[in-house]
């Protein structure tokens, strides 16, 4: 079943009503990819499994807080996992241990960036939309997502004014949202 055929929003709404079958379908659908993302962010499978468990418990307990008018269900789920992983990293006193080469290659426009992204996840639509962004918008978004860097840290790393970084991220996320909804 393609991503567009799975009703994430309806499934989350069913979870909010206590439908354990809906949660089981969601788990079966996304657990593997969520675990892969957690491993990428945390660098260790054991910690990634704990993070995945915590994130899925949070999804189940907070499904009633999901509002389809504010965004897509799948993005909401992934943001919970990412938030849990980044909190775990911050509590350990370190940032995401993702190779900077990966971020640089993803930020570039070459075919190698697409190959690396294909190995990391099955987010075809997101990869397609990221490729449509020009590097000055794509790079800060990738640094924020994969490294967990703040706007200030990104500005420092890229030797770019903070206001410019914030504007590029805001415009890039808006463009991604429009692309993903198209």
TrEMBL record:
Chain ranges of the RNA polymerase sigma-70 region domain: 26-94
UniProt domain RNA polymerase sigma factor 70 region 4 type: residue ranges: 124-176
Gene Ontology BP annotations: DNA-templated transcription initiation
Coiled-coil blocks: none
InterPro entries according to UniProt: RNA_pol_sigma-70-like (IPR039425), RNA_pol_sigma-70_dom (IPR014284), RNA_pol_sigma70_r2 (IPR007627), RNA_pol_sigma70_r4_t2 (IPR013249), RNA_pol_sigma_r2 (IPR013325), RNA_pol_sigma_r3/r4-like (IPR013324), WH-like_DNA-bd_sf (IPR036388)
GO molecular function: DNA binding; sigma factor activity
Keyword annotations: Sigma factor, Transcription, Transcription regulation
Pfam name, any one: Sigma70_r4_2
Keyword flag Nucleotide-binding: no
Family classification: Belongs to the sigma-70 factor family. ECF subfamily.
Name of the molecule in the record: RNA polymerase sigma-70 factor, ECF subfamily
